Amino acid sequence: MPSLQATIDPLPVNGSEPENGEPKDGRVDQKCDSSNGNNLPTNLYPSITTSNHPNLNHFASSHLINFGTTFLPDLIVSASHLSLFTAPSPGSSSPYGRAITDWTSGQMSSLLGHSHPEIVSVISSHAASLDHLFSGMLSPPVLNLAKRLTSVLPDGLDRAIFLSTGGESNEAAIKMAKTYTGKFEVVGLGASWHGVTAQASSVQYHAGRRVGWPLIPGGLMLPSPNAYRCHQGFRKRKEKGLKGKETSGEGGRWKEGDMIDKGNGKESQEENEEEWEYDWEAEMLYGWRLIDQQSCGSLAAVIVEPIQSSGGMHVLPPGYLGRLKSECEKRGMLLIVDEAQTGIGRTGEMVAVNHDGVVPDILTLSKTLGNGLPLSAVVTSHAIADVCAERDFLFYTTHVNDPLPAAVGDKVLEIVVRDDLVSHARRMGEILHSGLNQLKNRYACIGDVRGRGLMAGVEIVEDRRTGKEPGLELAKRVGDGAYELGLWCNLSTHPSFGGTFRIAPPITIGEKEVREGLAVLEEAFRGVEGTLPLY
């Protein structure tokens, strides 16, 4: 097998200055290869072609530790704005094989697109002059980011610490909640994902729990709010509903008999879905009743995502977050909101909690804040930060408050505010969701379209006219078809994911690019047998 390293010509990484001194449409971020004439970014690995790079899965099995994924067959040699570029064929006049439109922003992280020119410039200048310091030293980027971040967040989110990953930020947030309350039980939602660190993975229920040894004690679960696949017992007729939504009693606990009998959930599939609606409040209160029965009296916090992305792009129902905070307050718990994917404008608000007007006790950010670089944040109130300091809260890491990633985060926020990208994401999201719903109207294999702003989920079923049987194999064929046509949408067939495409392009995407991506997705559905076109 040829060595990857042996075929790479060492080239300097360009990008500190746009070509010809001026960015084109704000997006030319790397010096371009003048020989290709297509304004493409320079290929840093020109010696690698499809004929001399190794089989990637074979190479990975020999040299990389498997961390729970299957690698795609293409070797990506460059990325710019919305595009990923593969290695070229031998003798090709192009520096690349093909371009793939990235509708997941890398790992849901490249908020402004790959290799944004201003981000490249910040990375280059700080790598040269101010990259990493002793953790007890402060630098201008950290001060600037702390001030700018807290200025765009709701009042009550006053002070921040900057870390590296989403899992790390949730680990710190949970430790902070335990320190503040003096308690240890933490509640998560079913189908949640908060990271692979010890405490984070102990309170997530999408995947990663069956490790064969005890998790951190105190993890408890509320039902995952899923309007599309809610249990029959938590549906209500739109005109009837619960006998009395306002429950009373200690802790606001749900009481037996509060819910109308619906025939033990045995309605036929043919029953008109339009007659029913999801009763998330009854489901939540039922969940709290179980938690109160299980708790040993040490409830510290709830951690929740505004959109359960890994769980299938499920948006918390309107009013859910406010009721959740109310239930926390009744029990002396803190509310932690994990905005790894929803934060910094993607949903059409600076942070998704703004849609509900709810201020969490602790907010965590990651992914989008660093535009693909490892940067995360924990933000809380003065009161909580002060109490934690008095109680010797410790989260001293190698890269806490590092200047280089902090400078990137500060620039991300500057661009988002300056270019009004929050409003832009809202407008582009309306176009995206309209187009996806048009696809749903045409193809009976699309069971549900959901999301908010530039986050969308498209759930594939066998035939929505007869039921909601997950169409996992069909979804894979549609996804493979879209990828071959040049559009990457993340799809997982994990049982708690349900064969749902996760769509989250950079919020710098334009209307023309949204419509082009929708056209490719339409072509993928049209070209796969079993998608059940209705007209």
Automatic annotation (TrEMBL):
Molecular function as annotated in GO: pyridoxal phosphate binding; transaminase activity
Transferase found in the keyword field: yes
GO cellular component: mitochondrion
Record SUPFAM superfamilies: PLP-dependent transferases (SSF53383)
Listed InterPro entries: Aminotrans_3 (IPR005814), Aminotrans_3_PPA_site (IPR049704), PyrdxlP-dep_Trfase (IPR015424), PyrdxlP-dep_Trfase_major (IPR015421), PyrdxlP-dep_Trfase_small (IPR015422)
Compositionally skewed regions (Basic and acidic residues) per UniProt: 21-32, 241-269
Compositional bias segments (type: Polar residues): 33-45
Highest taxon, organism lineage: Eukaryota
Region listing for Disordered, in residue ranges: 1-45, 239-273
Keywords: Pyridoxal phosphate, Transferase
Family: Belongs to the class-III pyridoxal-phosphate-dependent aminotransferase family.
PANTHER family in UniProt: ALANINE--GLYOXYLATE AMINOTRANSFERASE 2-LIKE, PTHR45688
Protein name: Pyridoxal phosphate-dependent transferase
